Request: fold
Amino acid sequence: MNRIMMVDSNNRKINYLRLSITDRCNLRCMYCMPEDGIEFLPHDKILSYEEILRIVQLATYRGIRKVRLTGGEPLVRKGFTDFLKSMSEIEGLEEISITTNGVLLKQYAAEIKACGVTRLNISLDSLKPEKFKMITGRDYFHQVWEGIQEAERLGFAPIKLNVVAIKGINDDEIEAFGRLTLEKPYHIRFIEQMPIGGNNWNSDKFISILEIYERLQNVGPLVSIERRNSLDGPAQRYKIENAKGEIGLIGALSNHFCDVCNRLRLTADGHLRSCLFSETELDAMPLLREGKNDEEIIALIEKAIHEKPERHNLQNQGQRSCTRQMSSIGG
Ligand code: SAM
Ligand code: SF4
Reply:
């Protein structure tokens, strides 16, 4: 089958697929997943690994070159590393990366590396064990930190640490995260908290990337880094003078990057979603389970790409933004 690079109706090249492979998680981050009252999908309502691999294979025929595995927590799904191995054998995929909370990373890092995957995003909202526990609901700071060290030891690069900045909670650590880049080759990515899945988003707790940028100047002057290529993400990239690592600022709200968005998402329950903040989704599961042929599934992928909204309107939507849980979409 021929490979075609697809553009959406706003002429954006869509080459990046984010896959939520499970809605389950071993943490309960305060901005993502409530401690109680969450209903997880029954196992038969989650795409099987075979179904995910089929969609990814077909998506490569329509220009997808990069895949990110996320969740929920991808490493909690049984058989993850075998699945990753199969994913790494798909022809036409140039890059596979994983977003993980790092709790199980020490255990799986070597197997992940053996699949040829070297790009990791690890969520870490605090460098203090007590604060980490307060934000995530679990006392796993040391486990995550050891996972990060193991990944570094095994030569993963880049190691990106995702920090969701929350005013009054972890904003006192912005400079400490900045200083970490002086000693370690990590890319620290500050992410503005987004209103998703009824997560009690509150403007009092919001801290913009502009404020973060200004706070980081206390550590040292920030030098801007150019985008590498069309697979680069939406982060504004900087380096503090003489640092080993980098800083990324992701202003999902204050500086939306819809104009350069190259993403398509596949939810854990098989819905193609072309914008994180739009409720429009196309359900691929029936097609996969009713034995439809490749052309019919490709047509659905084309439709999802074609109908990608021009932009989100989050600033004006506030709390109403996105009713699905972040964990089922994959962030
Ligand atoms: N469990 C994995 C993890 O936490 O890295 C992967 C899934 S998580 C949904 C993916 C990313 O979304 C994480 O970096 C997390 O911090 C971020 N995230 C979750 N809820 C968010 C929110 N409301 N606003 C901004 N980022 C959020
Ligand atoms: Fe789990 Fe990731 Fe959500 Fe935290 S952000 S609750 S680690 S899915």
About this structure: The CA atoms of residues 192 and 252 lie 6 Å apart.
